[in-house]
Structures are given as C-alpha cells and as structure tokens.
Amino acid sequence: MCTQISMDDYRLDLDRKPLTVVKAKAIEVVQTNYDELFDGFDHLQAVTFSYGMSFVEEVVRKVQTAEVLFGSEAHVKMDVKEIMAHQEYTLLNLSRHPYLVEQVENGLAHFWVAHSSLALIHSKFYILSAADGRTRVICGSLNLSGRAFKGEDQIESITVFDNDSLAYHHFSNEFETMKDLSFDKISKESIYAETKAQENGEQISVEDLPVSKNERVNQAGVIVDESDLSDEQIDYISDLASLVNKYREFSPKPEQDGKVLFTPEKIKELVKAQKNAAENWETRKKRCPELVLDYETDRFAFNGKSYPLNYDSELVRQDITQLMSMFDGYNQFIGDSERILEMQKGYFRVMCYMMASPFLGRVRWEAHQAGYAETDFPLFVIIKGPRNTGKTALVESIKQLMFGRKLVKLSPENFTSRGIRAIFFECKGVPVLFDDIDNSRFTNHASESFKGTDYVFERNLFNHPLVVITTNNVNTVKPELMKRALTIGPDCVRDPGSNSLGHKHYHDAMSRLTGNFYKQYLERMLPEVHELLKSIREGKPEWVPDLFLVSSSVICELISEYGFDLPEYFCPVHSTDCLQ
C-alpha cells in the first residue's frame, strides 16, 4: 500500500516511509539546452549535490532572486570535520565570484550549505517561478554545473514539470524541509571573513563558519550526529581532504551517543584549539609547502596565499641564463662527452617532470579514470649514482628555479611507506625531496611505498606532489619499481680539483634564480593542461596522454622565445623516452 502525502502535513511528516515517489507521465521528449530551461523566470530555488560555482553564477544571472542549497560532495555521513571543511570550501568558492557576493549583499541571492548527513541525499532539483504565475520544476541526476547542463562529457536526461501545481508544491516543500533541517545560511559576514582570511593566508575562524552563525546555536545548540561512521564510506574529494585534515586536529569528540552539540561555549573552545592548530600547521607548511591550482578559476595558491602569475620578462631572461649556465657547467664534470650528454638529458627530464608536479595529481587521476596506465605518470623520481654527480644540487636548483627560494628537504628517516602516504595526503604540488637514501632503507621501504599507492585514486587526491629520491649506493632498482618511477643514473662526477670554485659558482647561480621563469611556464602550461585533460576525457584512439611532452615542449618554446639557442639536451621528450 502507498500512503498519499498531504501537502499541508508534508513538512511535519518526519516519520514518513523512506521513499517518496512523484508519479509522472511522459508527454513528449524534446531536445533543449540550459538557456531554454532557465530563461524567462524570476525566481530560482535549487538543490545541488555538487556544483561548478561559475555555472551557478550563470544561472543566478538569469533570474531576479535565487536560493541555492549546496549539499556535500563527500558522499558519506558527515561528521564535524567534514561539515566545517565543506563549509569553508564552499565559502572559498563563493568568495571568488564578486557578482554572487554582490547579490548576497543586496539580499537578492541566498545560499545555504550543509551541516547534516540529511543533506547527503542524492536529490537534485530546480524550481523556477515567474511573476505571471508560470512555474517549472527540473529534476533528475544533473548537478548545478556546466559539465552537467551543457552536455560537457555527460549524456543526461531530465524530467520537467511545467505549470504543474502538485509538482511545484511538493518540491517547494521538499526544499523548505531540507533547508530547515540540514543547512546553514551563508551570511555576507561569513563571506567577508573568508575573503579576509585568504588575503592574510590564514584559515577562517570557526566562529565565522555558517554552522556557528546558525540561530539555533545560540538557542538550543545544533546537534551533529557522528554515530555509526564507517571508514570504508569515506571518499575525500579535492581540496576538501586537506581542510578535513586541518579540522581533524581540533574538532570535538562526540559524546557517548555519538553526537556533538554546537553551543557558544563549544565554539569558544574550538576557536582556541584552532589557533593552536594553526601554529602547528604553519610549521608543517614550511616542511611541506603547497602549490595548488584551482582548475575552475585557473588561479594558483602557494601555502594558502594567492600566487599570481605576473612575471618580469627581464627576470625570466635572468633565470634562463642561470639555467643554461648550470647545465653547461656539467661539461666540466669528469667523463667522456657521450656520458656527460646522457647525464644532461637525464637531468633535463627530471626538471621537466618536477616543474609539472602541480599538474601531476589531476592529470594522473583523470587518466586513471579513463583507463590509461598509471605507470605513464610515475609518482616517483629516482636519481641514483656516485657522490659528486650533482644530484642534490640539481633538485635544489630546480626548486629555486621554480620558487626563487630554497625549500626544505625531508630527512631519510621519513622514507617509509607510512611517511610517503602522509606526504601524498598532506603535501600539494611542490616536489618533495628525500635526499641521500641509503641502500638498506630503500630496500626495506621502496617496494611497499611504490606499489601500495592506490589510495591516491581511492581518496581522490588531486593535488599530491611528485616525490624525488636521491641515493649514492642503490646500484640496482627492481624492474617492478623502475616502471613506477622516472629513474636516471648519472655517473659523471665533479672534478675534485675545482670543488671550492664549483661550490661558489653553484651558490652564486642559485642566488640569481628568481622564480619568474616558472611563473611564465605555469601560465603557458594552463591551456596545455586543460587541452590534455579534455583529450583524456574524450579518449582519442591510438593516443596516450604525455605530461613529459607537454612540459618539455613548453620549456623549450619559452627558452627559444627569449632568443637562446637550445643545446642538444634541451628538446621535447616523450614519456617513452623517459620511462622504462
């Protein structure tokens, strides 16, 4: 038996059966586009599970007033960490769209963000109404994103109810019920706080999150249910994962009944704990700095602060001059010309891949989803050879070339499977160096570290870094590890008689590297990487995505454009040239 739901009692009927069925009859099937769906209406109410904020803005511009509920992409029952991380992530995206912020300020757009696992239901629907009484309800599997509504790599069918009073009232009541029970309103004060936090390179205070602004916090508190959480359900996505890690350090533990009560007192405790955690986080950022690309806005952030790609052409030229001088200096190493040339070619390949590190995680994940071999995008670089082959100096110089500063390298004691896993979760974009790993440590930990990395796909770690390993006494790397790494073995050594002079020359060159060349490289890489990702999704026949080729081509093009002649070892390379 089916129970018919009274519209008057609908919002109060919290004990209703688990499935609500809206019975419909197909009238016709038509082809349309999102403009035709949304044009001609005055008010929008939307519920979306995930979203593209740029597309949200496109739709909001079509109406006079809008209300949008942003659910969570976590796909799990939300605990306090996920709630706070999701709310900050949504605030961050919203704050980057001035038109939407202006609409909030003027009271013409209202946004809510999830605070409850009830917001994880998979319903997506859009309610449109006009001043003349016309209504439209759109429901189906489409999230509020361009990829969904514009047919970008997705084939979608939706159901539309035009001027259907039953459908309109049902989904309007559903909207109000979800909003009241599971969502916190985003205030302009929260947006201002997020904007200020970003400008200062800080994390927004807990007291400024929407859940803390909820009126019920000051009345009876907001209860967050953390009972019955399953680790197997957790599916972190993109930057949400790192935010969750930040909140994990100070989020309150649930009571015995598995619930957390948000009260003013609890928020004060969290603010104090957050300040302590921020100090620890700053220490870790120095250890593992982050360079993260927002693929929606094409903006970079370095350690949480905006990283604009404005460069000085003269300083770009200076960086290229020092780079060419550094590679030319290898001609003074002891060894025949062929071996020196092979070393220069190998070091150039390392440089190409290190510079592409901020793009590696996303490209690798998309390629994996499309069925390409993950070994075409290795997570590791191994530089093995005798002492004085310039291995460490090379990696440090490339980092200086990238960021115009010396970055911390990790001690060999951190080279364990657990340590590698922590790096992929905590570090982003910037290559991580493990220097001088001895044979015993490499033998004991490399196999598990290299082969047991499926978690980067399972946990959707889009921004993980490249890991670079240098070693003096690992003579043999097993084939199953070689295919998971870019491996080079330089054997030409620095002339012992010129060590003092060579050391001074190296430090002088390092001090003149400014990071401007890398900024122009990143600017040039953005459209190339977007095109690469598009080709991966389209699955071109007889084609394999090649990040080595994209990166090396951009580097060579830039050097040539500044009037430098390319030496033999500076040339576009394919992944098949680099990987064994």
Describe the structure.
The chain is of the alpha/beta class. It starts with 33 loop residues before the first helix and ends with a helix. The strands form 4 sheets. The chain has a 7-stranded mixed β-sheet with strand order 6-5-4-1-2-3-7, with helices on both faces. A 4-stranded parallel β-sheet has the order 14-15-13-16, covered by helices on one side. It is built from 23 helices and 16 strands. It has 2 domains: 256 residues, no CATH class; 279 residues, no CATH class.
What is this structure, in a nutshell?
This protein has 580 residues and is an alpha/beta fold. Helix content is 45%, strand content 13%. The chain has two domains: 30-285, no CATH class; 300-578, no CATH class.
Task: Give unreliable regions as ranges.
Answer: 1-14, 217-240
Count every beta strand, where a strand is a DSSP E run of 2 or more residues: 16
Q: Percentage of helical residues? A: 40-55%
* Number of separate structural domains: 2
Mean pLDDT: 82
Radius of gyration: 27 Å
Number of helical elements: 23
In terms of DSSP E residues, the strand content is 5-15%
Widest sheet: strand order?
A: 6-5-4-1-2-3-7
Largest sheet, described in full?
7 strands, mixed
Overall, the morphology is elongated
Taking the alpha carbons of the first and last residues, their distance comes to 64 Å
The SS-based structural class is alpha/beta
